[in-house]
Each structure stands twice: as C-alpha cells, then as structure tokens.
Design goal:
This protein is 20% helix and 43% strand.
C-alpha cells in the first residue's frame, strides 16, 4: 500500500508518524510489517504527535508547478532554388528571443500556456509569433498530448506575411507523432500554405532527455500549385538550458533548404520547476532543539541567565514534562523511537518491534515505484522521489522517469516543434519572377490587340530618335541606289 499525507497510523502496538513522507507499507504472510520510505521521514514509537495538532495543508498546493521561462538564441535558413548557391536564392540569419508563460496548471498534469517569440536580422527582416497551447499527461499509458493555435507575422521581402498555425502532438516513451498546418492570411504573391506531419524518434539519451531524429513529410501550396516534399531534423538538448536543432528538406518549389537554431533558456524564479515539497519545513514556534545541531534524538535543556554560567544539561526525570501536542520533537528515550529516512526499509513484528533495518537496493526502490505508482496519477511528491532516486542510485531509466513525471515536466515547458515568425519559408524570388514575367507578357499582348495604335507624342521624341539613327545608318545603301538610278537615266539619254 502506497501512502502519502500527514495522517499517522498504527503499527502493531506502536504509532507510525510521518513528516512529509511517502512510504510503502505491506503485511507479510507471517504477520510482520515491511515499511519502505520513498521520501521524507517516518518514525515509529510508543507515543507520537497526534494528527489533530498537525497543521492542515491543502494537498493540491503541494503539486510542482512550472515557472516562466525566457530564451535567447540565433537561427538561420537558406535555399538553393534554381541551382543557385545555398542561401543565395533565399535565406536569413536571425537573432531570436522568446517568452514561455504558464497560465493555468492543475494536479501537476495539465498545463495551459502561452509562448511568444520575436526575431530579426537587424537589417529590415523581422518576425514575431504567439501561440496558446494546452498539454496534459495521461497516467494510464504515460503519454503526453499537446494542442496549439498560433499566429505568425514577418516581413523580409517588402510584403508583410501573416498566417494562422494549428497543430497537435502525441508523445509516449519519447516517441512523437504530430501534425502542423499553416494558413496564409496575407495577399503576398510569395506566401505559402503548408501541412506537415512529424515522427520523432529518440535515438540516444542525454541525461534525462533524448536526442530526437524527426522525419516529416509535407505539402506546400504556393504560386497556384501544390508541391510535396520531405524534411529530416535533429534536436539535441544540452542540459536543461541549451537546445541545438538542425533540419534539411527538399521539394520541387524550394529545392533544397537547410536551417538550424541554437537557444539558451532560463527560468525567472530560480528554477524551471517550483516544488513546494523541497521547501524547508519551518515550525510555527522554532525551538533550539528543533535545529539540526540539537536534533540528535535526545531532548536538550538549555539553561539561560544563571549565575553558574551558560551550559547545556540533560534533564532529569523530575524535570522532564512532555506536552502531548509536541511529543514528536521531545521524546527523551531515543531507544524507543525508530527513524527511517528516504531510501530505508525496515521489518517490524506484529506488535511493532523492530526486526531489521537497512538501505534499499536500487532494484528494490525501482520495484516499489513501478508496482505502486505505475498507472496512477502523479503524486505531489513524485518530483522529490525522482531527485532522491538520483541522489541515491544515479539517473533513473526511461520507465521510471515517465512514471515519476520527469518527462512530463520537461516536455510541458519545451516549445512545440514548428517554424515560427521569420523562419517560415516563402517562395524564392527567382521562382516567383518567372511566373510574374509570363503573366505580364500575356497581359501586355492582350492589351495591344484590343487598343488602336496611337500617334507618337512629343514625349516620345526620345523613342523616335533611334529610328532616325537607324535610317542614317542606311544612307550608304540609299546613295548607291540613287547612283544606279542616275546611271540608268544617263544611258537612256545616250540612246
């Protein structure tokens, strides 16, 4: 049985007291008790603090939450359309900034957020994006789902582009399956609508995250036609703060396009995760013996303002009076009080007598997590248990990280994988200009056939001068003709 919360319980004739504890309690066939502590501390003794004296805490307030995140970085992309050098046909190098803001979080497993970015090359090209997204964790299969709707606007070619972006993604065991679409809102001649699918494959683990290879077929619509293509991407997380990404794609409109991004992100409140369970538990009325240097299992009496000097002394039985509401901190018989810290396991007889106590092995700790927490909603202490496991045994495997919500806390604050702002692609000018030239020529021919020819105007004088120059160039031919005519006339006269 997995237990968490402030409720004390009985262990035979003893009382099991807890302080911020998550533990597993089981009964063996012979009637003995097994007590394993996953987080916090458990105490077993004859008399402990009664639950009524404990301060009531709303368990919902103990779930970890995500803090706002600010990011900076750089991105670039380039195309070699029509055989030009990469980046010559189209491309940008941009500086990026981003802000992630959690708007609503519930039970440590749902998140409503906003994510906004801005980018510029500081030479006329700039872009911005904003999106509203919702993510949730399903404990039954440990999957993470995402939905978003966003807006992108950018200007890099003299025409302001804008589009609506929609997308969705499903992730399990770090495999990702998603689809994203972009619908142009502007009237720019070089805009592109698109629909892209994505399969993300975890190829190698880096700490508690994975390098992800993405394969993405897509369809582009621009210049009145549709074009199919494919994209290959690689996402490399370097710790919690740095993300490196690169991609390459090919289709018959844009030809080859390559791009990449490096970003550095940091939280605004000291850490990406705000976990109330990690805060120091401070008593309402601190007393000296509750400090770490005095909390040795024996009560200590401090004598102050006495003529014989300041000294510490152990109280006698006559001097010791223990309040029933503070027994947990003032038990004078250390041998009657058994303490179990996180990672420890003990066996008790049916009447509560300690039979054995030892540290749990890595395999035992992992087994308890899988047996008691798999398929269950995340606990407020799940994040703490993950940190305790890392401290005792090193990094958990993927299964444990998913059960304890580590994958969820990372994925929830990670931006949805899509191109934003000025990183969105457009039709290259050299592809667009050929189409425009053809349309302009056809329009001009139709206009010439419909309209009557007009006499040249005075302002067309410069256009007629080349004709005169052309006639002057033909003067030698004219003179020769005149000479032939004169010769013929002379011959006729002689006859």
């Amino acid at each position: 049985m997995l237990v968490n919360g402030p409720q004390n319980s009985c262990l035979g004739t003893k009382v099991l007291g807890i302080r911020g504890t998550t533990y597993v309690l089981s009964v063996q066939e012979d009637g003995n008790y097994d007590l394993a502590v996953l987080s916090g501390e458990a105490t077993v003794g004859d008399a402990l603090e009664t639950p009524g004296s404990q301060s009531s805490t709303d368990i919902l307030s103990l779930y970890p939450t995500l803090n706002p995140v600010i990011g900076f970085g750089a991105s670039s992309w380039g195309s070699n359309s029509s055989g030009r050098a990469l980046g010559e046909a189209a491309g940008l190098i941009l500086g990026d900034a981003s802000v992630f803001v959690p708007l609503s979080q519930n039970l440590g497993s749902t998140l409503l957020y906003s994510y906004s970015t801005a980018s510029s090359n500081f030479d006329g090209a700039w872009g911005a994006s904003t999106e509203l997204g919702y993510k949730w964790f399903n404990p039954d299969d440990r999957s993470i789902s995402s939905l978003l709707i966003g807006y992108d606007g950018w200007d890099g070619s003299g025409c302001f582009h804008s589009q609506v972006a929609v997308g969705g993604q499903w992730q399990k065991d770090r495999w990702q399956f998603g689809v994203t679409g972009g619908i142009p809102l502007d009237q720019c001649a070089n805009n592109l609508g698109f629909a892209i699918g994505q399969v993300g494959i975890p190829v190698a683990d880096l700490g508690d995250q994975s390098i992800t290879l993405s394969l993405s077929p897509y369809v582009l619509h621009g210049t009145g036609d549709s074009y199919g293509g494919g994209r290959v991407g690689l996402n490399v997380p370097v710790g919690d703060q740095v993300i490196l990404s690169a991609y390459g794609q090919y289709d018959k409109l844009l030809d080859t396009v390559v791009g990449g991004q490096v970003s550095y992100r940091f939280a605004t409140n000291g850490g990406f995760v705000n976990d109330p369970n990690l805060r120091a538990k401070t008593p309402e009325s601190p007393t000296p013996w509750q400090a770490g240097e005095f909390n040795t299992g024996r009560a200590t009496q401090v004598a102050l303002n006495q003529d014989r000097g300041h000294a510490f002394s152990q109280p006698t039985s006559e001097e010791t009076t223990i309040s029933s509401t503070n027994l947990n901190n003032l038990i004078s018989n250390a041998d009657a009080l058994i303490r179990l810290k996180a990672g420890e396991e003990a066996t008790f007889s049916p009447d509560g007598t300690l039979l054995s106590q030892q540290m749990m092995s890595k395999e035992r700790f992992s087994q308890l997590i899988i047996e008691t927490m798999s398929g269950q909603n995340l606990l407020p202490e799940s994040h703490v248990i993950n940190l305790i496991y890392q401290q005792l045994y090193g990094l958990p495997d993927r299964t444990l990280l998913a059960i304890l919500g580590s994958d969820w806390l990372i994925e929830a604050r990670t931006p949805y994988p899509r191109l934003r702002g000025a990183n969105n692609l457009v039709v290259p000018d050299n592809k667009l200009s050929k189409k425009e030239k053809k349309e302009d020529k056809d329009n001009q021919d139709d206009q010439d056939n419909q309209e009557p020819k007009e006499e040249p105007k005075k302002e067309d004088k410069q256009q007629t001068e080349p004709k005169q120059i052309s006639n002057d160039n033909k003067e030698p031919e004219t003179s020769e003709t005149q000479s032939q005519s004169t010769s013929t006339s002379t011959s006729t006269s002689n006859l």
